[in-house]
C-alpha cells in the first residue's frame, strides 16, 4: 500500500492563513472546471471497472489505464502550476518571505518528486 506525504498544517497555514488551510486556494478560481475534470476522470475509472467486469481484452484495458493515468497527471500538473502561481508567489512577495519562500519551494519540489515517482 502506498502512502502519500501531505504537507504539515503549518505549511498550509503559511499559504492560506489558517492551520486548516482554509481558502482561498490557488485552484479556487477554477474550482468548477477542476471538479468537472475530476468527474470525467472518475467516469474513466468506472469504465475500467466495467471493462474488467465484462472481460474486455487486456490490451484494451491497459490502453484505458494509460489514458486515465495521463488525465490524472495532467490534472496534477495544472494544480501544481496554480500552487506555484498562488502560494509560492505569495511567499515570494511577502516582506519576511525568505524562510516561508524556501519552505514553499521545498514543498513544491517534494510534490514534483512524488509526481515523477508515479
Q: What are the defining features of this structure?
A:
118 residues; Methane Monooxygenase Hydroxylase, Chain G, domain 1; 4 helices; disordered N terminus
Structure characterization notes:
The chain has helices at 9-16, 31-53, 58-93, 97-117. The protein is elongated and about 60 Å long. The chain is mainly α and 118 residues long. It has 4 helices and no strands. The model is unreliable at 1-14 (pLDDT under 50). One of its GO terms (cellular component) is cytoplasm. It is found in: Cytoplasm.
How does the SSE layout of this entry go?
Elements: H1 9-16, H2 31-53, H3 58-93, H4 97-117
Helix pairs in contact: 2-3, 3-4
Fraction in helix: over 70%
- Please trace the helix and strand order, writing H or E for each element: HHHH
CATH class term = Mainly Alpha
Give the radius of gyration.
18 Å
Question: Could you tell me the strand content as a percent range?
Answer: under 5%
Number of domains: 1
Which structural class do the helices and strands define? mainly alpha
**Shape category:** elongated
**Whole-Å distance between the termini?**
14 Å
CATH architecture field: Up-down Bundle
Largest sheet: none
CATH topology: Methane Monooxygenase Hydroxylase, Chain G, domain 1
Give me the oligomer status: single chain
Q: Look at the structure and name the CATH superfamily.
A: Metal-sensitive repressor, helix protomer
Low-confidence stretches: 1-14
Organism: Kitasatospora cheerisanensis KCTC 2395
Keywords: Copper, Cytoplasm, DNA-binding, Metal-binding, Repressor, Transcription, Transcription regulation
GO molecular function, one term: DNA-binding transcription repressor activity
Family: Belongs to the CsoR family.
Amino acid at each position: 500500500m502506498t502512502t502519500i506525504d501531505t504537507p504539515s498544517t503549518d505549511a498550509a497555514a503559511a499559504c492560506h492563513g489558517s492551520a486548516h488551510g482554509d481558502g482561498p486556494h490557488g485552484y479556487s478560481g477554477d474550482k468548477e472546471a477542476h471538479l468537472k475534470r475530476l468527474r470525467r476522470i472518475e467516469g474513466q475509472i468506472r469504465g475500467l471497472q466495467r471493462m474488467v467486469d465484462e472481460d474486455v481484452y487486456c490490451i484494451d484495458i491497459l490502453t484505458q489505464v494509460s489514458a486515465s493515468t495521463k488525465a490524472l497527471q495532467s490534472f496534477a500538473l495544472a494544480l501544481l502550476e496554480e500552487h506555484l502561481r498562488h502560494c509560492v508567489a505569495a511567499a515570494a512577495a511577502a516582506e519576511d518571505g525568505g524562510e516561508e519562500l524556501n519552505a514553499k519551494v521545498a514543498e513544491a519540489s517534494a510534490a514534483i518528486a512524488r509526481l515523477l515517482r508515479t
